[in-house]
Amino acid sequence: MVAALAPGTGPRPAQRHARPRGPEETGNRLRDPGGDSRMNPRSTDTQESEIRRSSLVTRRFLWGPRFWFIVTAVLALALDQLTKWLVLRYETLHVPHQLLGDALRVSLTMNPRGLFGLSYGPVWMHYVLPILVVIVVIVIGLRSSDRWFGIALGMILGGGVGNNLIDRVRFGSVVDFIDMGIGNTRWYTYNLADAFAVAGVIMILAHEFLGWGKNRPMAEGPKSTPVPPVSGQS
Predict the structure, then answer these.
(1) Taking a C-beta distance cutoff of 8 angstroms, is the pair 108, 93 a contact?
(2) Where do the TM regions start and end (predicted)?
(3) Pairing of strands 104-111, 97-98
């Protein structure tokens, strides 16, 4: 006769080995392993603040005076060099080509002097002085807080670089081709770089003495739509 086994002394079913649970399985949801910020309102607020700050900085640059200063200078330089390339390619030196009769002609000339054929000292001065002017314009333009002023300085910079840093280095002279006048009364032959530089100076004078471009709030581009608060936040 088999003796009765005492309670609790018989064979026990195989026990499963317990696996340690991580914080994701123990109910700790304060930190979502997948990076879901819905469980962390502070993280959402920080991300939204960074997005707004980045968007504001971008708009201020794209619509600010520095941006227009750089864009204007690049466009002025590009137009100046493009027209000079076309004239050098298709025109003959000192052979006028009428556009609007004698009032406006294309007459290719190589000018070893300064603006509108004016001379302001030895030959080396025609290299050194414009370079100094270009440096000053760049410094002032990058520090400008006025869009009108920035555009004007950009026109001066584009013209100065086109004439005095590119033409003189490549040819030793400036490529002029715009010939205006009536009959034998002609204005100095010039180019688009000269026109941009003069227009920029006129804009600055009008800005300072006539108030053009002043007292106008600088647009910062289209305003962003406010981000609605996340549900569950106060």
Answers:
(1) yes
(2) 61-79, 124-142, 149-166, 186-206
(3) antiparallel
Question: How far apart, in whole angstroms, are the C-alpha atoms of residue 148 and residue 68?
Answer: 9
pTM more than 0.85: no
Rounded to whole angstroms, the Cα distance separating 56 from 59 reads 5
List pLDDT tens digits, range 166-205: 999 899 899 999 999 998 899 889 999 999 999 999 999 9
pLDDT for res 204: 94
- Which two structure tokens, joined as six digits, stand for 29? 């949801």
Q: Is 79 exposed, middle or buried (0-12, 13-18, 19+ CB in 10 A)?
A: middle
- Other CB atoms closer than 10 Å to residue 127's CB: what's the count? 14
- Residue among 156, 184, 168 nearest 125 (CA): 168
Q: What is the pLDDT of residues 218-229, one digit of tens each?
A: 444 444 455 555
Is-contact 155 70, C-beta < 8 A?
Answer: no
Helix (H, G, I), strand (E, B) or coil at 7: coil
Q: Where are the alpha helices (DSSP H) in 63-191?
A: 65-90, 125-143, 147-160, 168-171
Query: Taking the CA atoms of the chain, what radius of gyration do you get in angstroms?
Result: 36
- For residue 68, which of 131, 152, 4 has the smallest C-alpha distance? 152
Q: Are 158 and 45 in contact (CB under 8 A)?
A: no
- Least Cα distance to 105 among 179, 177, 176 occurs for 179
- Could you tell me where the beta strands, DSSP code E, fall in the chain? 97-98, 104-111, 174-182, 185-186
